[in-house]
Amino acid sequence: MKVAPVLEAVRATGKFETMLVHTGQHYDANMSDVFFHDLDMPQPDRFLGVGSGTHAEQTAKVMIEMEKLLTEEKPDLVLVAGDVNSTLASAIVAAKAQFRLGHIESGLRSFDRSMPEEINRIVADEFSEYCFVTEPSGLKNLEHEGISPDRVFFVGNTMIDSVQKYLPKARARFPELARKFDLEAKQYALVTLHRPNNVDEAHSLSRFVELFERMQAFVPRILFPVHPRTRNRIEHFGLASRVMGMQHLALIEPAGYLDFLALQSHAGLVLTDSGGIQEETTALGIPCITLRENTERPITVEEGTNELLGMDLERVLAYAERALQGKWKPYRVPQLWDGHAADRIAIILEEKL
Predict the structure, then answer these.
(1) How far apart are CA 276 and CA 135, in angstroms?
(2) More reliable by pLDDT, 272 or 50
(3) pTM metric for this prediction
(4) How do residues 195-245 score in pLDDT, each as one tens digit?
(5) Which of the 8 DSSP states describes residue 17?
(6) What is the assigned CATH class of domain 167-324?
(7) Is the pLDDT assigned to residue 353 strictly greater than 80?
(8) Angle between the 313-324 and 202-215 helix axes, to the nearest 10 degrees?
(9) I need a surface site. Which of 70, 92, 109, 326 has the fewest CB within 10 A?
(10) Residue 72 and residue 48: Cα distance in Å, rounded?
(11) Is the pLDDT of residue 27 over 80?
């Protein structure tokens, strides 16, 4: 979602030869292949086939394969996105081999270094010659960390470029999804959970199960596309019988980009621990409750539709009931989330390179 608009915009200039590299960190068909199809992306020029593993194993595999690739291709610029292990690994290899580096979605900080993503973001920004920032907090964070202003560019959010481009196509899918999952627009809650501190501990995951049980009193339908990691943990911690016993809760396979965008845009409420979904719900004007104690995307709380509630169950339940009643705080779409962030990146790269 972050890379597709940039690839399209850069190629549209006619000034660059591009190579799209898929590390294979996300390798499940539901978490990878379907996104290439939904976003009209070309097949990757290179597929590194890294697969799963610990953070160290995954990062090391990407580094080994990226070093081979960069040595062979000798690019003028390596462009990475987001905050995953592939971002960190590619940034380190590019920096050590003295290739120019750019980071899409630069400057975001949760100030919680127990999150692996926070480490990945900090390292990528430190070595990037081009830091492409999505929101004003990113400018302040990079300034505080001593990143030179001539390396920083406030361009907006390329994820929102994808939202705006594909929203009509996604909305056209909703009637079929509504029939399939027994949904009524604005009368269901959409859930995503995948962060380790939420799903890897029995106590935390059981609290979410309790939340869903209590939400059934006022939510006609709770739709939960289950991340493979989360599904495994539900089984492992012996929570499957409670989950499967809830009449209003439907566990489904991870949804593709267009299907999930359709489900978000018609939801009465989204509950999530994902950073990107906080941004998408703000762009869509959908109430969002973030089930974390911090966020690296404060603009979604300050100006958008997001409420940061952690696991205070009573507050989550009160806010959720309010959302389903159509009562939510005023919001606005943040500055430069206008569908043209990738165009700005392409213009900057033309000028600088």
Answers:
(1) 13
(2) 272
(3) 0.95
(4) 888 889 999 999 999 999 999 999 999 999 998 878 999 999 999 999 999
(5) -
(6) alpha beta
(7) yes
(8) 40
(9) 326
(10) 14
(11) no
Is 3-156+337-352 a domain of CATH 3.30.365.10? no
Residue type, 108: L
Give the pLDDT score at 212.
97
Q: If DSSP states are collapsed to H, E and C, what string results for 248-281?
A: CEEEECCCCHHHHHHHHHHCCEEEECCHHHHHHH
Tell me which residue has tokens 């120019």.
100
Handedness of CA 233, 291, 86, 63 (dihedral sign): negative
Which residue carries 């958008």 as its tokens?
A: 304
- Which pLDDT does position 194 carry in this prediction? 85
Q: Which residue out of 22, 26, 37, 194 is catalytically annotated? A: 194
**Structure-block tokens of residue 331:** 């919001």
Pull the structure tokens for residue 316. Answer: 């989550």
Residue ranges per structural domain of the chain: 3-156+337-352, 167-324
Q: Is 194 marked active-site?
A: yes
Residue pair 87/80 in contact by the 8 Å Cβ criterion:
yes
- Domain 3-156+337-352 and domain 167-324 have a common topology: yes
Amino acid residing at 208: F
User: What is the band of 31 on the pLDDT scale with cuts at 50, 70, 90?
Assistant: low
